[in-house]
Amino acid sequence: FVEETLDEVAVARDTFLLPIGDFSFTSDSERAHAVAAMLLPFVRELITGPTPMHLVTKPTAGSGGTLLCDVISLVTTGQSAPVGTEIPNDDEGRKRLTALFLAGEPIVLLDNIKEIVQGSVLAAALTSEWWMDRFLGQSSIVRVPVRCLWLATGNNPSALHEMVRRIVRIRIDTGLERPADRPREAFRFPDLKGWVREHRGELVHAA
Asked: Which of 67, 42, 66 shows the shortest CA–CA distance to 194?
């Protein structure tokens, strides 16, 4: 790299970190995992095979888990992440995933996972390059690629052994009993989603 290129990389790095600067990551590793999640959609077609679920964990509601997922989605797609719930470990869960993959959703967000991240249906989807299932009400089989960014949030969710190796943790902890009561003035960007929308072009260029 020439010196000018290295300078450009440094500027891009600082720009790309701006929208996640107000989140209380518990370590540099957790912040790095958030950056990785935000970069993944830009390079997804360079990756052969499955990618893990990025799980945003926090000790209490109001810590900013869903907001972080929204920021990641806004940077990468220009829209807030479509919110979903836990995937049932049954035919209904398979049907829901099939519908999401057929729709070509770039991001699958499972919000407010209650206790345990588990289930053979979700585990299979997370480790599959291709997904096969039967069309609803038909005998024909559909085969679609699994190319989405997987996101999930939860208050101290645990994960069974079969899921641990399929998850990248992003831990947030404000240290506050009621983090949702923080005043807007406590944040660099009080309207963070609005700021990301306004500056998305710069963030995409930085990516």
From this structure: 67
